[in-house]
Design a protein that fits this description.
The chain is of the alpha+beta class and 938 residues long. The chain is 52% helix and 14% strand. It has 31 helices and 21 strands. The strands form two sheets. Strands 1, 2, 3, 4, 5, 6, 7, 8, 9, 10, 11 and 12 form a twelve-stranded mixed β-sheet that branches.
């Protein structure tokens, strides 16, 4: 009997696929696209997390990423020969090889850049007279015998250092080399000798045999200890007044390490192991952080000490790098989860709508089968087999395309997502279609709200869903969205919760005002308005799914668009805060002033709209706090602030152009004894200058005149207003004064607005004969380039917005297609009564408009509510500014973007009107006889 069942099932599937190939292909394409997106999302997240982790490790300074195993010199209790042997290259390489094999997964070493050696941990003063002494202090040098010198450097001049015979602690002459930078700064020549003192007062002569150039100056070989590559001027900490001296390094021959045993430099053995991020993946981050912690101060350290020595230590900043990457990932993940859950819900609703449309088109066929004795199990089994034949290959193909499109990711999350899409369609379509035929139905029964009222069971289910959703939103409001790190499903599901509440409420309420509006329309001339409102008011009671899909898509698009717009706005604001205007010119030092000729020349360049000279003086001591103005115990505002002298009119124009807070220029108009001074004259004692201060400085100064001493003169200031920001300084502690009232009025900064040509601007500045710094806001903005993690997250969000828009269009089209046969029949009947083609188009457009307006208004409210609900817990800094040195990292809250909120809503209305118009035009091309066939009950 089973063989007969299989024989009967096969022709059924083939017959159905041949009868409706368009439906099968459309369903397969929809499943293919949805499975591809579902599988690509977790793979894309894995991919950008992997690229982000590798990027962070590769781009960080080698001194932070290298894992260094170090131990002091061999103990004095050992024989001298053994101590010397342990400090030679063969012994160091043996230990290094064992350390590399003992590295725990997932940490792997970049074997080509590994370096072993012996180094002096204390710098030794070099007293040679030919060495530079910038402030009368002799330089100090360190010495290192590091393996692999010939592989990581090229010989610029001289010869490589060698050891003609075994070097011991008693050797008194060795050879060494320095880098080109060291040779340039310290005046080192080939053949020079440096005397290194020893504990027995017999100096070691280090002969410089060559000068080398690093092959990869930024690589770990040279950058793990930057002194090997470049000398540095450092202040003497023992001097009360800072005095600087040079510190550099000399590279000895590989086997010359034992000679350092006779010095007081406290030599140490080291093995520098740079990590190889090529094999790391994003999910490895947590395990890598744990492994590094175990190496530094955990059980793995014991294994290291068994290999390198009992007093070996492990030092690395790699754990901090991985931890920083993990914090960025935790900050980005909740924002991405909102998009994933929102678009996933939209896709699920659209798939259910597609199944409902297919089931509605086959309702008569399945009702006939049921009436002739077909069992629910038999009908459901045939539908399941028919659906699986189309859906499962499409889902598998979608998974394969996702694997091909997004590489370097785990396969199982994508496989589960694609399988979930296939399972949803295979189960939902047969189940929903079969449940409609539990009882045989009459052919041709109406399905609108006139005859089909929502059942009590449906009402209870909807009320339960609304109550649960409202309770979840209430809990979210009380708890807040800024909970602990990681992804919170309650937070990520906020758009779904809000959209579910709005959809269920609107579906129940919107027919009522339409029916009320249809009554006065019935008294007017013409049937178009009344018919459209009456039909819209009696729309099918199953409209919750299309509305829910549209609301979810609009809310996710609004949220995603606001995130993308917020990232751009945050970067624009950060660039403006860093530069102060469209362009900025300043001296190399804080006290350098700009000549008047330069100000006039630059101000007259093409593209310069406004030039505002500013005099900035940092670290001006503030007077004692005014009584009653304290902001805390024992303090009342900052002790120092920046004095900013401006031309009030020019600065006010600058503030208006750049979007800075309004600047009350009229309040700085000094008169009487405080009137502007001619250049080069001293003001009278006791002058009171009006100032506009930051809130914190205003709180310290109070409202009475207060005396301050500056390099621009001594005078009293009186606060006449406050502004939160000033264009010329980053600090929030400042006071602004009319520069014409200062004794020294020369500007230190020139702020420009407009779009001057960068080349001409720099050329004009260069003609002044001095060096000045030219900063452009556009170039500062370009610094905020995306890291792989930021770029991946932003790309996913843009894709989510695009996918949401596509699914919203599809949901609207499916909603209209589901009732398309009924509308075409209505038009055919009305045309027999004299309805013109134009009136038919207006009828369909007016009928679709209320539902489209409902979705648009509901989408606006849902998007606004979602952003308002989630904005307290969303900080866009990790997406916008993280990884840029010197950028303002104050929180960047999520704000509603009007374009992201309004454009998708308008698009829904336009789409609905367009589809209705196209449908009316298509229906008008077919004759009424085609639509009104004898015996057709539509």
């Amino acid at each position: 009997m089973s063989n007969g069942n299989r024989a009967a099932a096969a022709p059924w599937i083939r017959t159905r696929l041949r009868t409706a190939p368009g439906t099968a292909v459309s369903l397969a394409v929809l499943v293919l696209v949805t499975a591809f997106l579902a599988a690509a999302f977790p793979r894309a997240v894995d991919a950008y997390e992997t690229k982000g982790l590798r990027h962070d490790i590769r781009t960080v300074d080698a001194s932070r990423s290298v894992v260094e195993v170090a131990r002091p010199q061999p103990g004095l209790n050992l024989p001298q020969e053994q101590r010397e042997a342990e400090m030679r290259a063969p012994a160091l390489e043996r230990v290094g090889g064992r350390l590399l094999k003992a590295l725990p997964a997932p940490l792997r070493a970049d074997a080509a850049s590994v370096a072993y050696g012996v180094r002096a941990t204390k710098a030794i003063v070099a007293a040679e007279p030919w060495l530079p002494r910038p402030e009368a202090l002799p330089p100090q040098l360190t010495y290192a015998a590091q393996t692999g010198l010939k592989k990581h450097a090229t010989l610029s001049s001289g010869a490589w250092p060698t050891t003609p015979g075994p070097v011991t602690a008693d050797s008194r002459e060795v050879e060494g080399v320095v880098t080109e930078e060291t040779a340039h700064e310290l005046n080192v020549k080939v053949g020079a000798t440096i005397a290194v003192p020893t504990v027995d007062n017999e100096p070691i002569t280090v002969r410089i045999t060559g000068i080398v150039a690093p092959r990869d100056p930024q690589g770990s070989y040279w950058s793990a200890d930057p002194l090997l590559r470049s000398p540095s001027l450092v202040p003497d900490p023992a001097k009360p007044v800072p005095q600087h001296y040079w510190v550099g390094s000399v590279l000895l021959a590989e086997d010359a390490g034992p000679v350092l045993l006779s010095t007081g430099a406290e030599p140490a053995l080291y093995w520098r192991i740079p990590p190889d991020p090529a094999s790391l993946t994003g999910p490895d981050g947590a395990r890598l952080q744990s492994v590094i912690a175990a190496l530094v101060s955990g059980p793995r350290l014991l294994e290291v000490r068994e290999i390198a020595g009992d007093n070996a230590v492990v030092a690395t900043g790699l754990g901090e790098v991985v931890g920083s990457n993990a914090r960025m990932r935790e900050a980005i993940s909740p924002v991405i989860a909102v998009a994933a859950l929102g678009i996933g819900s939209v896709a699920a609703v659209v798939l259910l709508m597609t199944g409902a449309l297919i089931g509605a088109r086959r309702r008569s066929e399945l009702a006939l089968l049921r009436a002739r004795g077909g069992s629910l199990r038999g009908i459901g089994g045939r539908l399941l087999a028919e659906t699986a034949v189309t859906v499962l290959p499409a889902a598998a193909l979608g998974l394969l395309l996702a694997v091909a499109a997004v590489g370097e990711a785990r396969w199982w999350p994508g496989a589960l997502a694609a399988a979930g899409v296939g399972a949803l369609v295979c189960v939902a379509l047969p189940l929903r279609t079969t449940l409609q035929h539990i009882r045989p139905t009459l052919h041709g029964a109406r399905e609108d709200m006139v005859s089909v009222r929502p059942s009590r069971r449906r009402t209870v289910v909807e009320l339960t869903l609304v109550v649960l959703a409202v309770g979840a939103v209430t809990a979210l409001l009380r708890r807040g969205t800024a909970a602990g790190g990681g992804t919170d499903l309650l937070v990520s599901g906020a758009p779904v919760l809000v959209a579910l509440i709005v959809a269920l409420v609107l579906v129940r309420l919107y027919p009522l005002p339409l029916r009320l509006a249809a009554r006065p329309m019935a008294r007017l001339r013409g049937a178009i308005g009344f018919l459209s409102l009456a039909r819209a008011g009696r729309a099918s009671g199953s409209g919750a799914l299309p509305l829910l899909a549209l609301l979810l898509a609009l809310a996710t698009a609004a949220f995603g668009g606001s995130v993308v717009a917020g990232i751009g706005d945050a970067r624009d604001d950060a660039a403006l805060a860093a530069v102060g205007a469209d362009a900025r010119i300043r001296g190399l030092s804080e006290r350098a002033t700009l000549p008047d000729e330069l100000v006039r020349t630059v101000g007259g360049l093409d593209g310069v709209e406004n030039a505002a000279p500013v005099r900035v003086e940092f670290s001006v001591d503030m007077p004692e706090a005014a009584s009653g103005g304290g902001s805390g115990p024992g303090s009342s505002g900052p002790d120092v602030a920046a004095l900013v002298g401006v031309d009030p009119a020019a600065y006010a124009r600058l503030a208006r152009t750049t979007g800075l807070p309004d600047f009350p220029a009229d309040r700085l108009a000094a008169t009487g004894p405080s009137a502007p001074l001619p250049k080069g004259t001293e003001g009278a004692t006791g002058r009171v200058l009006p100032v506009i201060a930051s809130p914190s400085v205003a709180a310290r100064l109070g409202t009475e005149p207060r005396a301050i001493k500056t390099l621009s003169g001594h005078f009293k200031v009186q606060v006449v207003g406050t502004v939160p920001r000033v264009a010329s300084v980053v600090t929030t502690n400042f006071l602004m004064v009319n520069s014409a009232s200062l004794e020294h009025q020369e500007p230190t900064t020139l702020l420009l607005t407009g779009s001057p040509d960068p080349g001409k601007l720099r050329a004009a500045v260069g003609e002044s004969g001095k060096e000045y710094v030219v900063q452009l806001r556009s170039e500062e903005r370009e610094r905020y380039v995306n890291t792989p993690m930021q770029a991946g997250a932003e790309r996913i969000y843009l894709s989510a917005v695009a996918a949401g828009a596509g699914y919203a269009l599809l949901a609207m089209a499916l909603s209209l297609f589901q009732t398309a046969p009924e509308r075409k029949t209505l038009l055919a009947r009305l045309r027999t009564m004299g309805l013109t083609t134009g009136q038919g188009r207006r009828l369909l457009a007016f009928e679709a408009t209320p539902q489209a307006l409902l979705a648009a208004v509901g989408g606006l409210f849902t998007g606004w509510a979602t952003i308002a609900l989630l904005s307290p817990g969303v900080d866009l800094v990790p997406l916008a500014l993280a990884g840029v040195a010197g950028s303002d990292t104050s929180p960047v809250p999520l704000r509603t973007d009007p374009w992201s909120l309004g454009l998708p809503a308008v698009g829904v209305v336009v789409l609905a009107a367009t589809v209705a118009g196209v449908q009316a035009w298509w229906a008008s091309r077919r004759g009424s006889i085609t639509e009104l066939r004898a015996g057709d009950s539509r």
